[in-house]
Specification:
Elements: E1 10-14, E2 17-19, E3 41-50, H1 56-66, E4 76-83, E5 103-108, H2 117-120, E6 122-124, H3 134-147, E7 150-159, E8 182-184, E9 190-192, H4 194-202, E10 211-215, H5 222-227, E11 234-237, H6 247-258, H7 262-270, H8 274-278, E12 281-282, E13 285-286, E14 289-295, H9 299-328, E15 340-342, H10 343-354, H11 357-373, E16 374-380, E17 393-395, H12 399-402, E18 405-407, E19 413-415, H13 416-421, H14 424-429, H15 431-437, H16 469-474, E20 480-481, H17 483-489, E21 496-498, H18 502-508, E22 524-532, E23 538-546, H19 550-562, H20 580-585, E24 611-613, E25 621-624, E26 630-633, H21 656-663, E27 666-668, E28 676-677, E29 680-683
Parallel strand pairs: 1-5, 3-4, 3-7, 7-10, 10-11
Antiparallel strand pairs: 1-2, 4-5, 5-6, 8-9, 11-14, 12-13, 14-16, 15-17, 18-19, 20-23, 21-22, 22-23, 24-29, 25-26, 25-28, 27-29
Length: about 675
């Protein structure tokens, strides 16, 4: 789960008491006392992870939510090994029960005093603990097995993942660290890849956990799941960025406590995901997501169909290349920073574009196989780019990328194709052979950010996902983004002028734009800018302006942004159906709208895109009539006509916005004598 995903711990609580572990005593090699089989818990859930300082409050929600579920029962034991993060310039540290960079290790019981975890459960202070080390994970798995012996074990990876990555999931020694399975912000995002994770479990006393629960992002990929399929009986995971404030873990533990069957418990969790769905967010915006539950060995049935798909694509590519390339540009992509695409949707797109009878049959069989494989599957569709049904993801790149030379963290060179063809998924399906022939790099259906990494390897997945960056890419006017997201995207890219897209132009028809002899599409430009509000948040804004002033207005807005000048809202008036009164009441700032001057038949300079209105509610238009009455627009702004009062957003002669527009040759409606238009700046002259 980017930014900053997706995304503990040392005290052992046994028999209702806390057994303290010194911060300097990390010996995991003590021999446990034999435990009679009848006294074993049914399940020990071991949660191992790290999400980062601005997300540590989420795991603490889990502590608090799970704690009361454990009262009066011995069937389920829950252990945490969690490494806390640290604050950054953009994000505060949110942990309450531990200090920054501290590692906690403890068993949670109904009697655990969460307020004492900072001292009672300390494993390492100001930790340099390498969360990604397979040896370290093995040691902590052994601790879990000895501390809370059980009939069945569940390993939950909690934090940030990035799915299969050819650069990082490389099989040769020394294995480059990656965030492919779980990463650690304390080491610049270095983490554990799927081979290290596999080796750590096989070397531990928990050699075959009943379930591996990926509470981290992008782990619903065929490459990783195929590699790990013999380690466990069940998977829970997501092919999307996994957003949660702890609901699903709490529901999962509740199901375990209430049942003695892991399938029944997990199905019960899936039946109670309304809170998870309602709060499924990335940064400040709503996004798509999914959660699946499946038997690990059923991945083989999927791979049989993927093998058929691979063989048929390669067989008809020489004659159906154009159609197959089109399919690559239509397939759904759960996260734009990875090379992973929805497998069943790819088969559907291939069948649709080619019309090939065999591909039609394969796509139908593959979709049915996924339906049969998932014991439970839920999804959240809150964006326009979604599927009716998600499957699992698979790598899709063109042959140039496949042949690309990469470097690991120690500068050892290898090729994308070498890494990919070493995967168990390729061995099962031959998928790497298709990637080596594919001419078309997919454009996909984007979800998240486009990583822009210009290192010599050409690989772009080292960059940490920053929540909110995808809204800058899509430019969702009105969205709130962090300074971190702006920095990741690039400030220069946040202040642009350009042609009006077909989508925006269509939305303007009959609203801000009406057929006329004076101004057309080519006379106008679409500007995109950032602006601050009094809430000290950064908003995305946009305007349509005449090309004569578009660059100037964009530059003014950048200066206002750099000065943290507050503008509450900057949406196209089409959002308000071009109703001026409505948008002004909403304090919207805008430019082009083909309309007359209020109360007249004369065209306004807004009709030519040569006038800009700023913070319109607090800077109203008014005109005193001969009968002594006053016409005010918006009608809700009467109190703001008195310019002797102090209030937010007020424009006057000392105001920075006033000064910048005047310097650029605009006149201010607040200086007019026949009426006052305090929001209004228009270009002088005809």
């Amino acid at each position: 789960m980017k930014k900053n995903l997706l995304w503990m711990l040392a005290a052992i609580l046994l028999c209702g008491t806390i057994a303290l572990i010194s911060c300097s005593d990390n010996n995991d090699n003590t021999t446990p006392n034999p435990t009679p089989t009848e006294d074993l818990a049914d399940y020990t859930l071991f949660i191992y992870g790290h999400a980062g300082g601005n997300m540590d409050d989420i795991i603490e929600n889990v502590y608090a939510g799970v704690k009361p579920l454990l009262a009066g029962q011995k069937k389920v034991r829950v252990l945490f090994f969690y490494k806390y993060g640290h604050h950054t310039e953009q994000d505060p540290f949110r942990g309450r029960f531990a200090d920054e960079d501290e590692v906690l290790r403890f068993e949670l019981t109904a009697e655990t005093d969460l307020r004492k975890l900072r001292t009672a459960a300390c494993f390492e202070e100001k930790s340099q603990f390498q969360l990604y080390s397979q040896e370290n994970l093995t040691a902590q798995l052994n601790w879990a097995a000895r501390t809370a012996p059980a009939k069945n074990y569940i390993i939950m990876l909690y934090g940030h993942g990035a799915g299969f990555n050819a650069k990082h999931d490389f099989y040769k020694e020394p294995i480059a660290g990656s965030r492919a399975v779980l990463y650690d912000e304390g080491f610049n995002g270095r983490g554990m890849n799927m081979y290290e994770f596999k080796n750590a479990i096989e070397a531990s006393e928990i050699k075959h956990p009943q379930m591996i629960y990926f509470h981290n992002c992008l782990m619903g990929n065929l490459e990783s799941l195929t590699t790990l399929r013999n380690l466990t009986d069940y998977y829970v995971g997501s092919q999307h960025v996994l957003a949660s404030v702890g609901h699903i873990i709490i529901e999962f533990v509740k199901g375990l406590v209430q049942t003695t069957d892991i399938e029944a418990a997990t199905k019960q969790m899936f039946a109670n995901l309304d809170d998870w769905k309602a709060q499924y967010r990335m940064g400040e915006e709503i996004c798509n997501g999914d959660l699946f539950f499946m038997k690990a060995l059923d991945i083989e049935n999927i791979n049989e169909q993927m093998d058929r798909l691979c063989n048929r694509i390669r067989e008809i590519y020489p004659t159906q290349g154009e159609a197959i390339d089109r399919a690559a540009c239509k397939v759904y992509q759960p996260f734009q920073g990875a090379t992973l695409f929805d497998a069943a949707d790819y088969a559907d797109c291939l069948a649709s574009e080619t019309g090939d009878a065999q591909l039609l049959a394969i796509s139908k069989d593959l979709r049915q196989t996924f339906n049969n494989t998932f014991i439970a599957h839920e999804h959240v569709n809150n964006r326009p780019d979604f599927l009716d049904a998600y499957s699992l993801s698979v790598t899709l790149v063109d042959k140039t990328t496949f042949a690309q030379e990469l470097k690991d963290d120690t500068d050892n060179k290898f090729f994308f194709g070498d890494s990919y063809m070493a995967t168990a998924f390729h061995a099962n399906t031959g998928w790497g052979h298709w990637l080596a022939e594919n001419n078309q790099m997919p454009t996909g259906n984007p979800f998240g950010l486009i990583d822009d990494d210009d290192d010599e390897s050409g690989d772009d997945s080292d960059q940490k996902y920053v929540p909110g960056t995808e809204y800058l890419i899509d430019w969702r006017a009105g969205a709130v983004v962090s300074q971190e997201a702006v920095d990741a995207y690039g400030l220069d890219m946040c202040f642009t002028t350009g042609d009006i897209s077909d989508e925006v132009w269509e939305s303007m028809q009959g609203k801000t734009y009406k057929e006329n002899p004076y101004i057309g599409r080519d006379d106008l430009q679409h500007i995109k800018v950032l602006h601050w509000d009094y809430d000290n948040q950064i908003h995305l804004g946009e305007m349509i302006c005449n090309h004569l002033i578009a660059g100037t207005v964009c530059n003014i807005m950048r200066k206002l942004f750099e000065a943290k000048y507050p503008i509450q809202r900057m949406l196209l008036p089409d959002v308000y159906d071009a109703d001026d009164e409505t948008q002004m009441r909403d304090n919207n700032s805008s430019c082009f709208c083909y309309r007359p001057i209020s109360g007249t038949s004369k065209l306004s300079k807004h009709a030519r895109g040569l006038a800009v209105d700023i913070n319109t509610l607090y800077n109203p238009y008014y005109k005193d009539r001969e009968d002594g009455t006053r016409y005010v627009q918006p009608a809700t702004a009467v109190e703001y006509c008195d310019r002797t009062k102090s209030f937010p957003y007020k424009i006057d002669h000392d105001d920075l916005c006033y000064k910048l527009f005047i310097e650029e040759g605009f006149e201010w409606g607040g200086d007019w004598t026949s009426c006052k238009d305090f929001q209004h700046f228009e270009l002088k002259g005809e």
